[in-house]
């Protein structure tokens, strides 16, 4: 008896769950039914709208073949026993203007044998003039005294279009045919832009207009051999294979839907009429499944909530009120303790975060200070070395009593001190892209200054410098000191790369490539490892192991070249050694005032 009492409640629960699932399924089913009814009404309205659009597009040009068939020039051309070239040219021009005004694709005239005598595209490579279209149904219909209607791919242009024809009559009978071709691509474009799934089929169920390009020229059902022969004979769809579009019919909520490309659609079809076409509008039924799933989930949540609530109430009735209150008080106490611990931990984490942020800011300041210090030490080292050389030369001249020759050394020392002051500004520009006033600069002058600056090093290292420069002056837009800095860095790197060789040689080439000035600096050293060429311009990257460099020379040079609108490329020359190629946009020679200043400076 006790076991029966235990089984009784559980059996009730089981039956309740089954009934709940049954109610949820029925609710989902009817939601699907009502949703499909709504979608069906929507598809009818949209189908009617698209039907009107298609009919309007076709009827827009229907009058034109009739009007042209009554043109006297066209009748005279078709009645003549032999072609009149002047008349043909005049009709071609007239048809071209008519086609442009009507916004059609092509307008053309055929004689009673199907040969095109005049066409609006007479001057194009795909001209219809001279082609025979007697095999087309629209020609046969017109010669039979009817208006022709036919959709096909152009045999010459390959462009699909809708052909409308009208016979040209005389007392003796039909003497020719006027045809207008209309490109209906704009309909497909409108369908695609609207995000709709629409297509039109012909009498053989072949899709020839569709919002989905991948469905074009596929059939909704197998095409008989007789129909296929007829399609091929009139060349309606060119070389298209006319395969069958894979579809599958199945049921959702008691209604039939069509599956295409793993998507379900509610299909509505409407006959267009005179061309024996059918317009199909497909509405995706994903909304039905979404609503059914939503209904099922809501029902499941409600049923689960009901069951959980019922269980909770049942368990709650079994507890003693005093025990429940004690337990709740204990839980609240534990929660408060946990909250206090979390608050303390959060405050400690915020303090650590602030300390870490302060450390990062300080580290950033130290890194920036170290980079500037290293850059200044590297770049000022060369002018200082040159100043030492010129001072030594000045002392020697002074001892020898050659005071008149001291002027050149003192001018060089003055120039180098000015350059040292400019270097700090250049490093600042490298760091934060400060604006620089640019002007036309003569490349010969900058190269000669850089070579003169490096001459003491060349003499000490026994480096031979060879220049291949054109005789005329060449100008680029830039800054003399910054360009000198680039060439000095390249000369210094080339000298270091030739360390240990008996014969050291640096070659400088200056060429014009259309509107670009190309400068190549090449040495006969050991070349570069191809694996590190990509890293040459990274700050602090260096292959020197003797402490002579800190890896900023090429990085600064790269920044200067790019700031001046140029490019710098490094490679290993096929004959040996490394070669750096600099390219800058060519600029016009400076004004007379600037040239006089330049001469005075020189």
From TrEMBL:
EC number(s) for this protein? 2.7.13.3
- The portions of this protein that span the membrane are 12-36, 295-313
Sequence ranges assigned to domain Histidine kinase in this UniProt record: 375-588
Q: What class of enzyme is it?
A: transferase
Localization annotation: Cell membrane
For this UniProt entry, the molecular function terms from Gene Ontology, in alphabetical order, are: ATP binding
Q: Could you tell me which InterPro entries the record lists for this protein?
A: dCache_1, HATPase_C_sf, HATPase_dom, His_kinase_dom, HisK_dim/P_dom, HisK_dim/P_sf, Sensor-like_sf, Sig_transdc_His_kin-like_C
The membrane topology of this protein is: Multi-pass membrane protein
This enzyme catalyses:
ATP + protein L-histidine = ADP + protein N-phospho-L-histidine
Q: Which UniProt keywords apply?
A: ATP-binding, Cell membrane, Coiled coil, Kinase, Membrane, Nucleotide-binding, Phosphoprotein, Transferase, Transmembrane, Transmembrane helix, Two-component regulatory system
User: Coiled coil where?
Assistant: 332-359
Name of the protein this chain belongs to: histidine kinase
Q: Which organism is it from?
A: Kiloniella laminariae
